[in-house]
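Weekly structure sync, notes
Attendees: PL (lead), two postdocs, one rotation student
Agenda item 3: pending single-chain targets
PL asked that the sequence for the first pending target be pasted directly into the notes so everyone works from the same version. It is reproduced below exactly as submitted, 1052 residues in total.
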Amino acid sequence: MEERRVKRPKISRGEDDYLPGNITEIELHNFMTFNHLVCKPGPRLNLVIGPNGSGKSSLVCAIALCLGGEPQLLGRATNIGAYVKRGEESGYIKISLRGYTKEEQITIVRKIDTRNKSEWLCNGKSVPKREILEVIRKFNIQVNNLTQFLPQDRVCEFAKLTPVQLLEETEKAVGDPQLPVQHCALVEKSRELKRHQKAVEKMGESLKQLIALNAVQEKDVERVRQRDELLEKVDSMKKKLPWLKYDMKKTEYFEAQKRGKDAKKNLDEAAKKLNDFRAPIEKQKQEKAKLDDKCKHISNLMNLNIKQRVDLLQKENEAAVQVRGKYKEVEDLRREEDSRKQSILEAKRKLAAAEQDLQNLPAYEPPKEEIERLKSQIVELTSSAHQKMQQKKEKEKSLGQMKTVLRNCVDSLRDMENANTKLLHALQKSGAEKIFDAYQWLQLHRHELNKEVYGPVLLEVNVSDQVHANFLEGHVAHYIWKSFITQDSGDRDFLVKNLQSFDVPILNYVRNESGQKAPFEISKQMHEFGIYSRLDQVFDAPTAVKEVLTSQFGLEHSYIGSDKTDQKADDVAKLGILDFWTPQNHYHWSVSRYGDKDMSASVEPVHVSRLLLCGLDNGEIEKLKSRKNELENSVADVEEGIKSLQIQQRLLEDEAAKLQKQREDMVETGRREMKKRKEMESCVEQRKRKLVSLEKGGDLEEAVAKLINQATRSNVERFKHAIKIKDLLVEAVSCKWSFAEKHMVSIENDAKIRDLEVNLKDHEKFAHEASLHLQYCEKDVQDCYQQLSAAKRHAESIAIITPELAKLFLEMPTTIEELEAAIQDHISQANSIVFLNRNILQEYEDRERQIEAISAKLEADNKELQRCLADIDALKGKWLPTLRNLVNQINETFSRNFQEMAVAGEVSLDEHDTDFDQFGILLKMKFRQAGQLQVLSAHHQSGGERSVSTILYLVSLQDLTNCPFRVVDEINQGMDPINERKMFQQLVRAASQPNTPQCFLLTPKLLPNLEYSEACSILNIMNGPWIETPSKVWSSGECWGTIAGLVQQSRC
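Predicted structure, written out during the meeting:
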């Protein structure tokens, strides 16, 4: 049956001849070598030509990076920031893709900057990268597939593709989109099949080994089972033994219960007799209790009588004391009357003397006008002193502010005059915002470092000449000036970890012990052309810093010349000097990678150094110095004024204090005089009051009569108390007689109770003994019950009696002794059976279980294996015929293309049964009639032959591919002219087919007299220092000869 041909999905071209996904416009800004570029490629074959270094590969990089590719894909720089044009901060790439209609245009923009950041825009709208990748995937654009996208730096990788990798890339690029999916599924299924086959084989071997081991051990297992049966009988007998012991304890329990019942009966009889004896005793005790209560009542009455008599006696004594006191007061009154008359005479005499002293005291008038005058002077002086103090405080505050401003001015001046601070300020202004923090951190942590660390590099480099500083700063990348250089890998890691937040680079210097540099020399020819030095000789720096700068930026290959060198720049390059500086320009020649004869030059003007030999404005320093002198003079004047105010304030305060003392003395004198007069007046008043008090004494006879009446009333009270005491004594005698009678009757009752209690004690002793015997019997019953319960629990823990076990117990001995003897006999029989492996039965049974488990698992794995084979056959039936048909179609085109070039080639599918991860595509060709077909590799074909094979294979995919465009960069380099011409014809023919994808072929040159068609578009890349004028002329329509003449004039 003929295999069906693989058909690519039909994509029809529009009226504009573009396919969906074709690139219609490319716009670059500040990207690699371009300031700004707008390019509109054709819909079919686009030939991008231009000299080496003009920017052809920049176009390839732009397409890859804008369509979702990463920098690593291009084999150039690994960071996106490296693709920004040197000297610029940011740039962008803009690519327009043709949609499914002519009007639909999809614009993708990628903005990049030197900080390695990207921003994506789709149709002018900011979107995440995943949305860009969705758009790319919709058109099947694969910039990472070498069959679709082959940049210059990865051409050699195509020849290194293994057959397996080539098949994978081809499946992705052409044919049915399901082919790579089915291939991946088959690879996974084949790995799963191998796992199942290995598992089935391993389990089969294990099953056979287990069955063989069990067959060998069957006899030993039978002997083990006989021994186990004897031991099982022993276990059964051991189960009956605790039950026999339980029966014995049960009998003992019943006997103890019987003894307890007898003891209870004896105790009841003894208790009955004891109660019969206790009744008359209780009756006598009750009568005695009644008599005792009556005695107690009479005793309480007697005690109350005694208390009342004591209270009356106490009251009688108190009345007697009052009578005696009244008579004593009468005597005291008569003595006081005599003494009062003498005191009145003495008081009159003292009053007359005090009044005479008060009349003799002279009058005192205080000087009020003088005191008021002194007070006003003191207030005026105090106010003046306070004003001086306020003026002094204001001047002191102003002085403090001036000193603060002066200190700030001095600090600013010191910072400006400090060289390192100047350089750090310059770095901070140039973008290193945290360089001060990084520098201070390093100074604080130098003791933690193993070796000396230098940095920032700008502080370590010393250039004495301004012109040389311009050269060095222009040659060295800006980032190096803020870098720190270590000499130990541990120090480098320590600084990277801690200085990461300060955004400063860390470089590690490793000394080159082997290399010995040649001494610097200037030849005679160099002198003739004005060369007088080299860039690594014009500055001083520590060895590590100088070595890093030299090795990183090639300072030993950059020379310094004069104006004479500027005039003979082209001749200087002939001496092999490819980089040199003159006062006005920087010249640099670069050699093409494709040949030493092709060189391109660049000339850039010299810019003034912004970092090296930087200095702050001298005028600003002079202003600060002048300001400092003014502040110092002002501070001195203010301090002098403060001293003057302080002296004036002190004089005013002293004068005020002197006047205050005079005023206080006057006031104190007046106060003393007034106090003396008031004291004398007070003394006169007091003596008058005392005299009046003495003269007011009462009537003596009246007071004496009053006291005698009070004494008479107290005597009457004493008589009444004596009558009450007599009545209480009569009542006490009667109570005493009644108490004696009742107490005698109580004593007789006590004698009767003692006689009855003697007989009661004998009966109590007998009842107590009966009670103790009952307690002993009850305890015995409890102990027997506990032993019985323990025996039952033990027996149940050994075995629960079931009907089967009870039947088995009937066959065993019925006594404990006979049962123990039978147990010993069976144990002896079991011990007589000896075998080497005691675990043989367990091992045998474990293997039986393993055999069952493995058998079940083996059956399941066999079913899974069959299912996996069926899945593989189904997938293989879909995938392999389609793949074979695809490879045959590629082979037909590939062989035909090789035949047209008079050589031979074929494409074949390398099949490996079910090892689908080994399937591959073999490219075989021969370029000589006598040779044989060889697989494409770096060992069998030359570089040109590999290039021919690569481009012809890509052409063979042209009609089958479903991608919108293909990019090939400088594939014709290394081809001989014949093969290159034939290859070009193949490309033109393929591009002329109806539905072939858009193609970009980049080359520095094309052979003359090539055949072109309408499908070809020529894109000339013209880029360089002399291109501006010719481009303007050419854009106006002038011929190329006119342009060439303009170029020669511009070079002269």
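Discussion points:
- The longest strand covers residues 23-31.
- Residues 281 and 435 are 119 Å apart (CA to CA).
Action: rotation student to compare against the earlier draft before next sync.
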